[in-house]
Predict the 3D structure of the following.
Amino acid sequence: MKKIKLFRVVPFFLLLLLVKGPTITSKASENLTLRILNWHDYIYEPEEEGDDPSIVDQFKADYKAKTGKDVNVIYELFTTNEDMYSKMKLSEMQYDLLCPSDYMIQRLIREDRLEKFDVTDGVYTALPAYQEYVSPYLRGIFDDNGWTEYSAGYMWGTMGLVYNTDVANKEDVQTWDVIWDSKYAHKVSIKDSMRDTYLVGLFRVHKEEVNSLKAQYEEGTITAEAYNDALTILINDTSDETIAKVEKELNTMKENIFGFEVDSGKFDIVTGKIAINTAWSGDAVYSIGDAPEGKLRYALPKEGSNVWFDGWVMPKGANKELAQAFVNFLSEPSIAVQNVDYIGYSPFIAGDEMLAFIEEHDEYSETGSYTRDLSYFFGETLTDPTAAYFKTDAEGAQLTTQFPSEEEIIRCVVMKDFGDQNQKVVEMWTRIRSTKMSPVMIVLLVTVPVIGVGLVIYFVLRNKKNKRHQRRKGREASA
């Protein structure tokens, strides 16, 4: 309003001077802008009065306190890696930070679209918090894949099966074959995601080879590293012959499933509409926490699965100083805990505060019958490295889903960028999704009461929020 009044009284010739004359800006009052492109619901936001400010607002205040400079943050969202890629290429916006998944990071590196982080002799010199607290296991994967200079990890997880313990047998969900099992006809939902569902098809196609590798590892004739390396090759097979075999298996699968989904499955499994949901671990944590206690559990099939990663990258032309300041802020343990509590996925950041977060969880029990060793994840980031474990009576529930064991991780593979074969896999997937669904599935999908679904989502979200607030208040009380 003040600017409008000023322009009403300034003489015309003076106005011209103001418009055309040189502008002098004090460096102390310089306004900087950080442009971020991230997934939906992938960073802490306050939910009610009295909550901490958003992570973005906390960063702005922290940056001001440390540098004396104001920073404006433009925070935009995307829904898929391909959506992010298109926005990066076609938008007039010069983004400073993106948060793609592992295979997209590989693609961006290959296409020379990224700035490098400040890394000297393997040390992130501009990310001291990340350097100190990043899980050594996860850092090792980034080192091995050549991502270290181009990316800093954010969240990670697995893909498995969430199942209703009243309907599905625990032994049945130890294999991906359950998706084809007629006993669960039209009771299983699967991801409407080309790469994730292609992976499931690969485990089916290469079942004999996968089981042979598993037997060799269990007999001790091959090492864990050799086992994972060989499994990685099999579950990244995109030969023409294999694509055709996967297509055949997925067409058969379509006749048996309830349907494809991206987000609705985590609600459908809670309401009982389905008995088994192919789920990312973060969504599994979400569903298990909002169902009656003990009703839902998560299983990583014995054949193996996918371990995936999302990381921060800086596209060419990014403001590296601001971008790295933000990533380092996210890597502060207290901020990482806040994010993990809100999002439900597994963090790259370890350390004492993350272990304390685990020990505050409802499922944690000092006398629990099941012990999960997390020394592979925490490594030397703890004051007492021997404390890297937790006990619980709830195996397959939230904590063990969010923090898998090393033995489970050994049989999980990183999916690679499909490279030159990507278009052929896309064409196969297009045919899978364009062919007719089974009549039973169509009836089930069409007759879903929309109002009921809306009410379920409302109560699920409210329940999740209440649990987060209880944990937050518990931390504040013990501080």
Remarks:
- The chain has a mean pLDDT of 88.
- The radius of gyration is 24 Å.
- The chain has two domains: 30-155+310-347, 156-309+355-478.
